[in-house]
């Protein structure tokens, strides 16, 4: 079975973009693959963070994985910093990744532009995609289900893998062993179970994000029904009356329809447009959308509370996950160190 690796940063509440862009696909396909899902806390400290909250946010994010339907019997869940090989591998890869590659990363450029104080633009933020490459490559993962915004980082992971195998793979090849790294597939994106890019509720041209200033711009997975209804009621619409997918001049319309479609069984777009044409415009559509979201979130929120009520069990799952992860990660790290020519531990 092919191996899947993915992760989410524990930086505050998860939102509908994280869910429809990533986690829902993990859940839908968990039977098909061997699954490794990580809470990437080392990534969360690449921007100024609240040390009082990190541990709690990490637990909560892991709880959210389970609440969304990840089954710990079929998937391993663990915390990135509990497997030190991630940090060590990232260092090794830092030493073969050209700076020019990282300078091209749009997420870095965006985040740097948002950080007003130059003192808080850390080296770690710059080299963040290398840590992400380490995450993926340590497990020799073939598939990495992420939203569209992570695509460039995934390409970088492929480039880093190729570059490493090329630079340091000769001896390994001569010994007829498999290359140290496997190049992950560019993007395993599946239209039937999510939305590659969920946009902000207040601006259809920017993505829904945890860091956007206004909470009205996103649906958090823990928002209660009334909050969801009021956010949808007040979210940005346009003057066009017909509700149609994929009109480039109507990003808000496309976004809300995409979310609605993903939450209601992914029927053909034309079919949804037909039904909505008969019911008439935004005023009729918004309540339908709000109810679709509320219906999806209700069981997740119930399970979330259940999971957090039994912290011992959650900790056990994370301990087991980290142990199993370390076994694979340490082996890849050992091979990478050997290929790079490090002296063996004596
Ligand atoms: P993060 O924590 O920003 O987001 C987690 C996942 O949610 C997806 N996502 C979205 N998808 C659609 N629409 C949106 N508006 C939206 N916002 C977020 C992201 O694409 C992601 O899949 N660097 C990663 C975490 C990471 C990782 C990894 C992922 C670290 N190492 C290794 C995969 C493999 C990140 O910051 O995701």
UniProtKB/TrEMBL annotation:
Keywords: Aminoacyl-tRNA synthetase, ATP-binding, Ligase, Nucleotide-binding, Protein biosynthesis
Name under which the protein is recorded: tryptophan--tRNA ligase
Keyword Transmembrane helix appears in the UniProt entry: no
Subcellular location: Mitochondrion
EC class (word): ligase
EC numbers on record: 6.1.1.2
Highest taxon of source: Eukaryota
UniProt similarity note: Belongs to the class-I aminoacyl-tRNA synthetase family.
Section covered of the full-length record: 106 to 451 of 475
GO MF, one example: tryptophan-tRNA ligase activity
Reaction catalysis annotation: tRNA(Trp) + L-tryptophan + ATP = L-tryptophyl-tRNA(Trp) + AMP + diphosphate + H(+)
GO cellular component labels: mitochondrion
GO biological process: tryptophanyl-tRNA aminoacylation
């Amino acid at each position: 079975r092919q191996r899947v690796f993915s992760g989410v940063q524990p930086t505050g509440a998860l939102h509908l973009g994280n869910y429809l862009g990533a986690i829902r696909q993990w859940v839908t396909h968990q039977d098909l693959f061997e699954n490794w899902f990580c809470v990437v806390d080392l990534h969360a400290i690449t921007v100024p963070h609240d040390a009082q909250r990190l541990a709690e946010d990490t637990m909560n994010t892991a709880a959210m994985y389970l609440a969304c339907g990840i089954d710990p019997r079929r998937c391993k869940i663990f915390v990135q910093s509990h497997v030190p090989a991630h940090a060590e591998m990232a260092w090794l890869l830092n030493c073969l990744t050209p700076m020019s590659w990282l300078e091209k990363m749009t997420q870095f450029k965006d985040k740097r532009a948002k950080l007003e104080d130059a003192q808080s633009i850390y080296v770690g933020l710059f080299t963040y995609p290398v840590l992400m490459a380490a995450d993926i490559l340590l497990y020799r993962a073939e598939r990495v289900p992420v939203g569209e915004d992570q695509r460039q980082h995934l390409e970088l992971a492929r480039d880093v893998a190729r570059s490493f195998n090329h630079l340091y793979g000769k001896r390994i090849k001569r010994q007829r062993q498999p290359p140290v790294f496997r190049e992950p597939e560019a993007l395993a994106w599946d239209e039937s179970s999510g939305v590659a890019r969920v946009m902000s509720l207040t601006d259809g041209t920017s993505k829904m994000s945890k860091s956007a200033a206004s909470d009205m711009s996103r649906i958090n997975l823990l928002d209660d029904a009334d909050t969801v209804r009021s956010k949808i009621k007040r979210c940005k619409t346009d003057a066009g009356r017909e509700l149609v997918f994929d009109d480039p001049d109507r990003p808000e319309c496309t976004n809300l329809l995409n979310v609605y479609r993903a939450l209601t069984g992914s029927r053909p777009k034309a079919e949804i447009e037909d039904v909505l044409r008969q019911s008439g415009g935004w005023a009729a559509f918004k309540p339908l959308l709000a109810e679709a979201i509320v219906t999806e979130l209700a069981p997740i929120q119930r399970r979330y509370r259940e999971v957090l009520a039994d912290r011992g069990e959650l900790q056990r799952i994370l301990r087991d996950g980290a142990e199993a992860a370390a076994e694979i990660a340490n082996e890849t790290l050992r091979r990478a160190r050997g290929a790079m020519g490090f002296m063996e531990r004596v």
